[in-house]
């Protein structure tokens, strides 16, 4: 995912050498004009209760504060620093120390305490210092036994299992066939934009590959080579013009890719995989990108899940299902039925699942401000990897349990009762997302505003106009 790759920046941007840079030189992230620069962040901190007037900006310029700024303003996770502090406290309680000591060289020592639930044990987070938190991030990406380092070595940008392809972002008209140049940089692109209406093989910043399986192989080779580059030179060069892993940072950033990031493009909007508002925003973004040569136009837009061109490309190579994450889709996965394009799309990110309780109107606070309110299990079940169906079960954010079984891909969906209306849009603009207590869980929305409804099967009328197959 984008945040996994983005964290390799910690090696260069939290290094002792980089900490000597003038505060004024550390600009806001180029892809987010609304984010604060590092200096603005420190000035805000100085004015807050955290620091008194006796502190200067140089006094506040620590690795811990640089990391807080990076997490909040460049990765969009403002609470992660304190979450990591709490996590370290629990790991120390479980294993006796964190990170693992050099004496044992064990990355996963035998637990000294078994914790079945965090409420079962008290931990003292005050004993975990800011320095401990910074060191933990350093360990996870820079040490060979670090969990993030190991995860990236076992990860893939794309993976095909039978008739299903997995990517973090989206396979759309812009990302299909495209493999970026390994010399890509994490910045606004210097190369001219590609043709957005009809992608061409005549590009200067990458290659186009027609075969889906070869495309996936090349994307994963891009990841492997990027990791080798990162590990061989994790810090900036003396001129601060080059560092290892730059291509990996580029592929997880839409402006750097001229909107062609299979890692960061997304179908999700308003808790579903398609909205009329998202369609208008996408058309506007493509116009701005082409007429004004502005790659920032691609930030935040949703891909066209109804586009037949990428669907036909996948179908020609035996791919009938896409599974993605990246952007939140409410309190259960959002699915596009294969009845629309022949390709089923399943978007499974349920972060930001917090919602108002249907009966009381009160917000749930069961597991925190946004995440953890809903639980989902996504399974692909069948006789083999090429004949199967989607089965999704779990608990909605209001505590309602659900279990949804989709038709086998390629079957006559209308002949299968119940599941045939899952993943389809109703005549009044709702999407059918789940079966809960013999009724259907529906959703509609815009951006991160999401509405829910519950209806019986006879009250769900599917809009047939969009069904192409």
What can you tell me about this protein's structure?
- The chain has 469 residues and is of the alpha+beta class.
- 27% of the residues lie in helices and 15% in strands.
- It is built from twelve helices and 13 strands.
- β1 and β2 form a beta hairpin.
- It is globular, with a radius of gyration of 24 Å.
Shape, per Cα inertia axes: globular
Helix fraction by DSSP (H/I, runs of at least 4):
25-40%
Main sheet properties? 5 strands, mixed
Oligomer: single chain
Can you list the strand order of the major beta sheet? 1-2-5-7-6
- The number of helices is 12
Distance between termini? Answer: 32 Å
Question: Outline of this structure?
Answer:
This protein is α+β, with helices and mostly antiparallel strands. It is 27% helix and 15% strand. Helix 6 packs across helix 7 and helix 7 runs parallel beside helix 8.
What is this structure's SSE topology?
Elements: H1 2-6, H2 9-13, H3 38-47, H4 57-60, H5 63-74, H6 80-95, H7 130-142, H8 147-154, E1 158-161, E2 164-167, E3 178-180, E4 206-208, H9 212-232, H10 246-251, H11 276-292, H12 308-315, E5 321-324, E6 334-336, E7 344-347, E8 375-384, E9 387-395, E10 401-405, E11 431-436, E12 439-446, E13 449-455
Parallel strand pairs: 2-5, 5-7
Antiparallel strand pairs: 1-2, 3-4, 6-7, 8-9, 9-10, 11-12, 12-13
């Amino acid at each position: 995912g984008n945040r996994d790759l983005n964290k390799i920046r910690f090696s260069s941007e939290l290094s002792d050498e980089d900490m000597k840079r003038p505060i004024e030189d550390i600009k806001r992230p180029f892809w987010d004009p609304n984010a604060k620069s590092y200096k603005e962040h420190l000035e805000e901190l100085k004015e807050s209760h955290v620091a008194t007037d006796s502190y200067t900006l140089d006094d506040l310029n620590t690795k811990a504060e640089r990391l807080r700024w990076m997490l909040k303003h460049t990765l969009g996770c403002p609470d992660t620093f304190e979450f990591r502090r709490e996590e370290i406290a629990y790991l120390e309680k479980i294993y006796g120390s964190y990170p693992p000591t050099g004496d044992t060289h064990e990355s996963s020592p035998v637990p000294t305490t078994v914790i079945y639930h965090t409420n079962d044990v008290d931990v003292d987070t005050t004993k975990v210092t800011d320095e401990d938190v910074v060191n933990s991030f350093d360990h996870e990406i820079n040490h060979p036994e670090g969990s993030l380092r190991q995860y990236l070595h076992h990860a893939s940008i794309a993976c095909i299992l039978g008739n299903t392809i997995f990517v973090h972002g989206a396979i759309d008209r812009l990302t299909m066939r495209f493999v970026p140049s390994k010399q890509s940089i994490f910045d606004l692109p210097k190369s001219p934009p590609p043709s957005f209406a009809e992608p061409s093989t005549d590009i200067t910043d990458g290659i186009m590959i027609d075969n889906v399986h070869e495309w996936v192989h090349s994307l994963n080779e891009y990841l492997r080579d990027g990791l080798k580059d990162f590990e061989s030179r994790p810090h900036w060069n003396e001129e601060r013009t080059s560092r290892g892993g730059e291509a990996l940072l580029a592929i997880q950033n839409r402006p750097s890719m001229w909107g062609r990031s299979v890692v960061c493009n997304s179908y999700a909007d308003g808790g579903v995989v398609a909205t009329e508002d998202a369609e208008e925003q996408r058309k506007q973004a493509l116009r701005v990108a082409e007429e004004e040569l502005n790659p920032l136009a691609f930030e935040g837009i949703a891909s066209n899940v109804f586009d037949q061109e990428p669907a036909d490309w996948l179908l020609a190579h035996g791919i009938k299902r896409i599974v993605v994450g990246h952007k939140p889709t409410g309190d259960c996965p959002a699915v596009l039925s294969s009845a629309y394009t022949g390709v089923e799309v399943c978007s499974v990110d349920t972060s930001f699942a917090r919602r108002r309780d249907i009966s009381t109107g009160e917000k749930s606070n069961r597991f925190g401000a946004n995440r953890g309110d809903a639980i989902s299990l996504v399974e692909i079940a069948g006789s083999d990897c090429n004949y199967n169906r989607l089965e999704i079960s779990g608990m909605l954010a209001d505590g309602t349990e659900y279990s949804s079984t989709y038709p086998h891909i390629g079957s006559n969906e209308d002949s299968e009762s119940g599941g045939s209306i899952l993943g389809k849009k109703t005549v009044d603009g709702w999407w059918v997302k789940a079966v809960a207590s013999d009724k259907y869980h529906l959703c509609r929305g815009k951006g991160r505003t999401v509405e829910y409804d519950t209806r019986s099967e006879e009250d769900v009328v599917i809009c047939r106009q969009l069904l192409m197959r």
